[in-house]
Design goal:
The complex is a heterodimer of chains A (113) and B (110).
Chain A (H helix, E strand, L loop, with lengths): L3 E4 L2 E4 L5 E7 L5 E8 L3 E10 L2 E4 L6 E3 L9 E3 L8 E8 L8 E2 L3 E5 L1
Parallel strand pairs in A: 2-11
Antiparallel strand pairs in A: 1-3, 3-8, 4-5, 4-9, 5-6, 7-8, 9-10, 9-11
Chain B lengths: L2 E3 L4 E5 L4 E3 L2 E3 L5 E7 L6 E5 L10 E2 L10 E3 L8 E8 L7 E3 L3 E6 L1
Parallel strand pairs in B: 2-11
Antiparallel strand pairs in B: 1-4, 3-8, 5-6, 5-9, 7-8, 9-10, 9-11
The chains are: A mainly beta (113), B mainly beta (110).
Chain lengths: 113, 110
Amino acid sequence: DGGITQSPKYLFRKEGQNVTLSCEQNLNHDAMYWYRQDPGQGLRLIYYSQIVNDFQKGDIAEGYSVSREKKESFPLTVTSAQKNPTAFYLCASKVTPANNEQFFGPGTRLTVL
Amino acid sequence: AQRVTQPEKLLSVFKGAPVELKCNYSYSGSPELFWYVQYSRQRLQLLLRHISRESIKGFTADLNKGETSFHLKKPFAQEEDSAMYYCALSDTGSARQLTFGSGTQLTVLP
């Protein structure tokens, strides 16, 4: 394993607090993605970034924010505006946006208490 | 809008039996389809893609444009095939975003 790391593996937060999930990759990939995985719903795209200093909203961006200041890092902030934040979050990357194979991190399970 | 449907949330078969995981899609253009797999305590990973027309771990999948399907098949299931399987469709835009199905949990019984 290696390549894409996510930390922490488990995260707990109190309702009303913002929390930032880390995603780092040493694969020199241009494109990075954040997904939310819920039982019975598969993976849903939150945000993606095709290049440094640029990112776009995915299908469920409300209540989330991202930044892409460095090629290897794409942190996701879950804000207090996200109504149902408890979920498993997956980060992924691929060589270029046009390439089709995405490589996934191990995930972070966020629980809001 | 593109959509991927996996009608079975759970599927159980006995070891040595054939297995077929269903995937149907809707997309206005020419689709690129994939199967991803997530074994217990492992990362989600690419299993196969339709353009490669390859067999991976004994699994094959044929794109049927007439039926808009991309079912995953294996003639003789093994216990190590037990995992969550996701069908995914890529659009043909510059971002090549993936749309995932809801997944099928396959259990191969001894």
